[in-house]
């Protein structure tokens, strides 16, 4: 649909609203499910109530989370595609610079995502410690050697890269909203659960912060 429909105001609005809805669901909807799971095991209890087990609840959750994440970013890219206009002259203004910087930020986010998955594995990537009591030992390896929460900034670098390439106020708004909602998710959903689960084992300062403090 993104490729076959014209880039009129009507279709641009539809794609922007679609991207907004998926972002709200991915941050607020998924966040609500995880909050209820953290405090009352609501998701797991639902499956146990109807004769399933913890493993099935975990499997269904992974499917829901993966679909939500995919649609969130796919709808954002689709909306940006609708708002994008190919520069008539690449040497005029900042057209070439915007595309170079934007592509670099997209590559940075992809590298960050791969690094996070390599460090956390499937269990950590899908918030396994919300669903199982036997949480793994807390370790700081890979990208987490340097940053406590790489998704705070680097995890959304590509979203800002697409906004810079598109150079659209609507896409910049979506990027800003995405960043704000991600920070809220980390602060109000992820961090309280990690604090409750790991307590004093949580590192307060990242490796990068410690290095900067020693240098100063």
UniProtKB/TrEMBL annotation:
What InterPro entries does its record include? Phopholipid_MeTrfase
Which BP terms from GO are recorded?
methylation
Task: Provide the E.C. number(s) assigned to this enzyme.
Answer: 2.1.1.17
| Subcellular location as annotated | Endomembrane system
Q: What is its main location?
A: membrane
Q: Which UniProt keywords apply?
A: Endoplasmic reticulum, Lipid biosynthesis, Lipid metabolism, Membrane, Methyltransferase, Phospholipid biosynthesis, Phospholipid metabolism, S-adenosyl-L-methionine, Transferase, Transmembrane, Transmembrane helix
Tell me which Pfam families the record gives: PEMT (PF04191)
Q: How does it sit in the membrane?
A: Multi-pass membrane protein
List all membrane-crossing ranges: 12-34, 64-84, 96-117, 157-186
Under the heading Gene3D superfamilies, the entry gives: 1.20.120.1630
Using the UniProt record, name the top-level EC class of this enzyme in a single word. transferase
Report the domain of life of the source organism.
Eukaryota
Q: Could you cite one Gene Ontology molecular function of this protein?
A: phosphatidylethanolamine N-methyltransferase activity
Quote the PANTHER family the UniProt record gives. Answer: PHOSPHATIDYLETHANOLAMINE N-METHYLTRANSFERASE
Protein name (Swiss-Prot/TrEMBL)? Phosphatidylethanolamine N-methyltransferase
């Amino acid at each position: 649909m993104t490729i076959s429909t014209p880039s009129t105001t009507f279709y641009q609005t539809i794609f922007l609203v679609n991207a907004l809805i998926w972002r709200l669901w991915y941050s607020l909807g998924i966040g609500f499910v995880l909050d209820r799971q953290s405090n009352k095991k609501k998701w797991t209890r639902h499956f146990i109530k109807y004769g399933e087990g913890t493993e099935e609840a975990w499997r269904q959750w992974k499917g829901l989370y993966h679909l939500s994440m995919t649609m969130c970013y796919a709808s954002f890219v689709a909306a940006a595609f609708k708002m994008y206009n190919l520069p008539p002259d690449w040497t005029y203004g900042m057209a070439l610079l915007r595309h170079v910087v934007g592509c670099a930020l997209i590559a940075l986010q992809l590298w960050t995502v791969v690094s996070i998955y390599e460090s956390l594995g499937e269990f950590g990537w899908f918030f396994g410690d919300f669903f199982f009591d036997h949480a793994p030992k807390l370790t700081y390896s890979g990208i987490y050697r340097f940053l406590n929460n790489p998704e705070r900034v680097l995890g959304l670098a590509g979203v800002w890269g697409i906004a810079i390439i598109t150079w659209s106020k609507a896409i910049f708004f979506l990027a800003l909203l995405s960043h704000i909602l991600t920070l809220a998710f980390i602060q109000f959903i992820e961090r309280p659960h990690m604090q409750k689960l790991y307590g004093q084992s949580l590192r307060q300062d990242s490796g990068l912060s410690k290095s900067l403090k020693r240098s100063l």
